[in-house]
UniProtKB/TrEMBL annotation:
<keyword id="KW-0645">Protease</keyword>
<feature type="transmembrane region" description="Helical">
    <location>
        <begin position="43"/>
        <end position="70"/>
    </location>
</feature>
<feature type="transmembrane region" description="Helical">
    <location>
        <begin position="132"/>
        <end position="153"/>
    </location>
</feature>
<feature type="transmembrane region" description="Helical">
    <location>
        <begin position="190"/>
        <end position="209"/>
    </location>
</feature>
<dbReference type="InterPro" id="IPR022764">
    <property type="entry name" value="Peptidase_S54_rhomboid_dom"/>
</dbReference>
<feature type="transmembrane region" description="Helical">
    <location>
        <begin position="6"/>
        <end position="22"/>
    </location>
</feature>
<dbReference type="Pfam" id="PF01694">
    <property type="entry name" value="Rhomboid"/>
</dbReference>
<keyword id="KW-0812">Transmembrane</keyword>
<keyword id="KW-0472">Membrane</keyword>
<protein>
    <submittedName>
        <fullName>Rhomboid family intramembrane serine protease</fullName>
    </submittedName>
</protein>
<dbReference type="GO" id="GO:0006508">
    <property type="term" value="P:proteolysis"/>
</dbReference>
<feature type="transmembrane region" description="Helical">
    <location>
        <begin position="82"/>
        <end position="100"/>
    </location>
</feature>
<feature type="transmembrane region" description="Helical">
    <location>
        <begin position="165"/>
        <end position="184"/>
    </location>
</feature>
<dbReference type="GO" id="GO:0016020">
    <property type="term" value="C:membrane"/>
</dbReference>
<feature type="domain" description="Peptidase S54 rhomboid">
    <location>
        <begin position="41"/>
        <end position="184"/>
    </location>
</feature>
<feature type="transmembrane region" description="Helical">
    <location>
        <begin position="107"/>
        <end position="126"/>
    </location>
</feature>
<dbReference type="InterPro" id="IPR050925">
    <property type="entry name" value="Rhomboid_protease_S54"/>
</dbReference>
Amino acid sequence: MPELSVLLLFIAMFVVSIRGFRDPVFFRKYLFEVSDVKYKKEYYRLITCGFLHVDWMHLLFNAITLYFFYSIPFGVLGEVRFFVLYFVGLGLSGYFSYLIHRNDSGYAAVGASGAVSAVLFSAIVLRPKLELIIFPIPIPIPGYIFAVAYLLYTTYGMRRSWGNVGHAAHLGGAAAGVLLTLLMEPRAWHLHPWMVGIILTLLVVLIVWELKRRRIL
C-alpha cells in the first residue's frame, strides 16, 4: 500500500484524468499546448498537463510505472524531497518539451510521463543494478543498461517524431530525475561512479546535441 501522500497523488491523477475524459472543455483548459504557453504565458499548464491523460491505457501505464518505482526515491530521499523530484521533474520535462517544439504552435501534450521518467531515472541512479524486465524480453536488464537504451531510443524517437509520444518530455524528465537526485543525494555518485557517470554523460551529450541541432544553443 503506498504512503498516504503518494496515494493522494494517485487519486488526484485518476480524478483529474477521468474528468478530462468526460469534459473536453476541462481537458483543453489544462493540457500543455505550445501556443498557450508561448503567447498567453499560461505556465501552469506545464504542471496541470501531468494530471491529464489521453485514455485509460495511457493513464494506467503511467500509474503502474510510477507505482513500481516510486518506493526507491521515496525511501532514500524522503517524502518532501520525493515530491520536489516529482513536481520539479514534471515542470522541467514540460519546459524541455516546450523548447523542442517552440516553433510548432499547434503542439499539445498531456500525461505524467515526464514526472514518471524523473522518478524512474532517480530510482536507477540510486540503484543502478536494479533489474528490469521489459516485455516481451524475458531476461532481466540492469537498470543502467536500460537507462542507456531508453535514452538512445527516446532521442531517436524524438528526431523521427515516432508515434503520438512525448519523447521530449521523457528525455527532459529523465535528465531532471538524474540531476535532482545527484543534487539531493550526492552519495549516489560516490556509491556507483562509473554507472551513474555513463548515464549522466550520455544525457549531457544527447541533450546538447539535440539543442544544437535545433539551434537552441
